[in-house]
Design goal:
The chain is built from 3 helices and 37 strands. The protein is mainly β and about 525 residues long. The protein has a domain of about 200 residues: Ribonuclease Inhibitor (Leucine-rich repeat, LRR (right-handed beta-alpha superhelix)), CATH 3.80.10.10. It is elongated, with a radius of gyration of 33 Å. The relative contact order is 0.04.
C-alpha cells in the first residue's frame, strides 16, 4: 500500500463522523463507513486490511468496533475528529510515521478498551483528558517523543492491565496515583527522564508481573513496599541513582526471575536476601557500592546469568559456591561475571560441575593458587578471563580440551607453564602474552602462529610442527632442535637447520617478507 497522508485520512474520518451521526451511532453503520474507507486503499491485502469485513447484513452493535491501521505508512497528525467514533473499542495506529500531539479529544472515546499509539513520532505532553478512558485495559504510548509529566489522571485506569510509556522523554515524578491500578500486570516506563523517588504506592500493585523503570534519574532508597509484589517476575531498576540497601522484603519476591540493579549507588552489605529467590534466572548487580561477601546465588538452581562486577565484594568465594549444593546446583548457569572486586581464595574445583557455562570472568580480584583441572569439563566455554589475579604455577593442559574456547586472558598472573599445543591457532601471538613475566615454558606445537613479541623470560618453548620461517632467536629457549622440528623455513647456526647466511640470501626473494621481533624470532608468512 502506498503512503497515506493524514490529510486524506481526515477526509475519510469526516465521512465516518457523518455516517455515525445519521445512522443513530449504530456499530453496523460505522463498520460500513470503515469499509468504504478501506476501498480507497491501494493494497487490500496488506497488513490487517483483509480482515475488515462485515460479518452479516444483520450485524448488530454487539460486535466490538476495531480500527486497526498499524504498519500502514501513515503520516501527519492524528485528527481530533477521530473522537466522533464513539463506538470504537480498539484503536491501533502503531508503527506508522504519525507526528504532532495526541489530540485531547481522544479522551472522549469512552468505550475504548485498547489504545495503541506506540512506535510513531508523536510529541508534546500526554493529555490529561486521557484519564477519562476508564475502560482501558491496554495502553501503549512507547517509542515516541512525548515530553512533560505522566498525568496523575492515569490513576483513573482501574481496569488497566498494560501500561507502556517507555522510550520517550517524559520527566518529573512517577505519579503516586499509579498505585490505584490494582489490575496492572505490566508497567514499563524505562528510558525516560523521570526524576523522582520510586513511589511506595507501587507496592499495592499485587498483580504486577513486570516493572521496568531502568534508564531514568530515579533516586533515593528502593521502597520496602516493593517486597509485597509476590506476582513479580521481572524487576529492572538499572541505570538510575538509587541508594541505600536492598530491602530485606525483597526476599518475599518468590516468583522473581529477572533482577537488574546495575549502575546505581546501592550500598551496605551484599544483598543476602537474594538467596530466597528460588526461581531467579538473571541477576545483575554490577557497578554499585555493595560490600562484604558475594550473595549466595544458587539456592534454587535456576540461575543462568550472574554479574556483579565493579563492586567492593570481599572475602572468599562463598561456601554456597564451593560445595555440591552451590555452583554444582546451578546446571543452567551460562554466565558468571564477578570482575573488579576484592574476592580472595581459590577457584573452587566444583566450578567444573557448571557444565553450561559459556562466559567466565573472575578478573581483577585476589584469587590465588592453581587453576583447577576440572575446568576441562566446561566444554561449552567460549570466553575465560582470569587476568589480574595472583594465580600461579602450571596452566592445566586440560584447557586444550575446551574446543569452543575463543578467548583466554591470563594477563598479570604468575603463570610458569602454558600449553596451547594441538589447536588451530593462527596469526600473531597477542602482545599481552609478553606480560606473563613468570612464564618459563610455552608449548605452541601443532599450530600456525606467525610472530612472537617480547617473550624474553622463556626458558623452554615448543614450536614444533608449525609453518614458521625466518631466523631462530639466540635465546636458549629456542636452541632445542627437537622443539623446532616441522618448521622447514627456519634458518640459523643451530644443528639441523640451514645457516643464517642462506636466510639472508633468500630474503631478497620478493615472495618472502621478514622482520625482526625483539626478544623472539623473525617469522615469515
Amino acid at each position: 500500500m502506498g503512503k497515506l497522508s493524514f490529510k486524506k485520512l481526515l477526509t475519510l474520518l469526516l465521512l465516518i463522523q457523518f455516517l455515525c451521526v445519521v445512522a443513530s451511532a449504530s456499530s453496523t453503520k460505522e463498520a460500513n463507513a470503515l469499509l468504504k474507507w478501506k476501498a480507497t486503499f491501494e493494497n487490500q491485502t496488506k497488513s490487517r486490511l483483509s480482515s475488515w469485513t462485515l460479518v452479516s447484513p444483520n450485524a448488530t452493535n454487539s460486535k466490538p468496533l476495531i480500527l486497526d491501521l498499524d504498519e500502514n505508512q501513515l503520516n501527519g497528525t492524528i485528527p481530533s475528529e477521530i473522537s466522533q467514533c464513539q463506538s470504537l473499542n480498539e484503536l491501533a495506529l502503531y508503527s506508522n510515521s504519525l507526528d504532532g500531539q495526541i489530540p485531547t479529544s481522544l479522551g472522549n472515546l469512552s468505550n475504548l478498551v485498547r489504545l495503541y499509539l506506540n512506535n510513531n513520532s508523536l510529541s508534546g505532553s500526554i493529555p490529561v483528558e486521557m484519564g477519562n478512558l476508564t475502560n482501558l485495559i491496554e495502553l501503549y504510548l512507547d517509542t515516541n517523543h512525548l515530553t512533560s509529566l505522566i498525568p496523575s489522571s492515569f490513576g483513573n485506569f482501574t481496569k488497566l492491565i498494560v501500561l507502556h510509556a517507555f522510550d520517550n522523554q517524559l520527566s518529573g515524578l512517577i505519579p503516586e496515583e499509579l498505585g490505584n491500578l490494582k489490575c496492572l500486570e505490566h508497567l514499563s516506563l524505562y528510558s525516560n527522564n523521570l526524576f523522582s523517588s520510586i513511589p511506595a504506592s507501587l507496592g499495592s500493585l499485587m498483580n504486577l508481573n513486570y516493572l521496568h523503570l531502568y534508564g531514568n534519574q530515579l533516586f533515593g532508597p528502593i521502597p520496602k513496599e516493593l517486597g509485597n509484589l509476590k506476582s513479580l517476575t521481572d524487576l529492572e531498576l538499572s541505570v538510575n541513582q538509587l541508594n541505600g540497601s536492598l530491602p530485606p522484603s525483597f526476599g518475599n519476591l518468590i516468583n522473581l526471575e529477572i533482577l537488574y540493579l546495575l549502575q546505581n549507588q546501592l550500598s551496605r552489605s551484599s544483598p543476602q536476601e537474594i538467596r530466597n529467590l528460588m526461581k531467579l534466572l538473571l541477576l545483575q548487580l554490577d557497578t554499585n557500592q555493595f560490600i562484604g561477601p558475594p550473595p549466595n546465588i544458587c539456592q534454587g538452581g535456576s540461575l543462568a546469568c550472574f554479574s556483579a562486577s565493579n563492586k567492593n565484594l570481599t572475602g572468599n568465594i562463598p561456601k554456597g559456591l564451593k560445595n555440591c549444593t552451590g555452583l554444582g546446583s546451578c546446571p543452567n548457569l551460562s554466565s558468571l561475571l564477578v570482575a573488579r572486586n576484592n574476592i580472595t581464595g581459590t577457584i573452587p574445583p566444583e566450578i567444573g560441575n557448571v557444565t553450561q557455562l559459556q562466559s567466565l570472568d573472575l578478573s581483577s580480584n585476589n584469587l590465588v593458587e592453581k587453576i583447577p583441572k576440572t575446568l576441562r569439563k566446561l566444554t561449552t566455554l567460549i570466553k575465560v578471563n582470569l587476568s589480574d589475579n595472583q594465580l600461579f604455577d602450571v596452566i592445566p593442559p586440560e584447557i586444550g580440551l575446551l574446543t569452543n574456547l575463543e578467548s583466554l586472558d591470563l594477563f598479570s598472573n604468575r603463570v610458569r607453564q602454558l600449553d596451547l599445543s594441538h589447536n588451530s591457532l593462527r596469526g600473531e601471538i597477542p602482545p599481552r602474552m609478553s606480560h606473563l613475566e613468570s612464564l618459563e615454558r610455552l608449548n605452541l606445537s601443532y599450530n600456525s602462529p606467525n610472530s612472537f613479541e617480547e617473550m624474553r623470560g622463556l626458558l623452554y618453548v615448543d614450536i614444533s610442527d608449525n609453518q614458521l620461517k625466518g631466523l631462530i632467536h639466540e635465546s636458549k629457549a629456542f636452541q632445542d632442535v627437537a622443539m623446532l622440528q616441522g618448521n622447514n623455513g627456519l634458518c640459523d647456526n643451530v644443528q639441523g637447520f640451514p645457516p643464517r647466511d642462506l636466510f639472508e640470501d633468500r630474503s631478497k626473494d620478493s615472495r618472502l617478507i621478514s622482520r625482526p621481533i625483539s626478544g623472539g624470532m623473525t617469522l615469515k608468512n
